[in-house]
Specification:
mainly alpha
């Protein structure tokens, strides 16, 4: 279908940019690839352990946010939402990260959907509005806030 082709094209472009921007850091690219492969094989525990070990040995690596986001995916697949949240907060608190707004959005969704913490989720969405007014997640954050307010009013 055309939508599937668009998604594949976006994934390919994202991968191309990642490779071009990080061509000097082959070990981190290899770590990202290994983690992705382990996750694809549904070996989430192995993927998580691999990323944690890699980041402990290479704490200042340029791709640390990307690796942490893969770690979040592994934690979510294992229903370990508290570790996923703490990892997302590490991405958000890393001022050099390009994924701070994404980390807040994902944290909000975990809080809302998996941990039944609508108030904390709403705080994360509001932080996106305040700190990242040009974020690609801004409209989604606004709609989540409206939905959560409506749900609260209907209780």
């Amino acid at each position: 279908s055309p939508e599937k082709i668009d998604l594949l094209e976006n994934d390919a472009l994202e991968l191309l940019i990642l490779l071009q921007e990080n061509s000097q850091d082959s070990s981190s690219l290899a770590a990202l690839g290994t983690s992705e492969l382990l996750s694809f094989q549904r070996r989430y525990n192995a993927a998580g352990e691999y990323v944690v070990d890699y980041l402990q040995n290479n704490p200042d690596v340029l791709l640390r946010s990307e690796l942490r986001l893969q770690l979040v995916d592994a934690y979510e697949a294992m229903s370990n939402y508290e570790l996923a949240l703490s990892t997302l907060m590490a991405v958000y608190e890393d001022n050099e990260s390009l994924f701070r707004d994404k980390a807040l959005m994902l944290a909000g969704k975990i809080l809302e959907s998996n941990l039944s913490s609508s108030d904390r989720a709403q705080e994360h969405y509001e932080t996106i509005l305040e700190e990242f007014p040009n974020s690609v997640y801004i409209e989604d954050a606004r709609s989540r806030i409206r939905l959560l307010r409506d749900e609260k009013e209907n209780l």
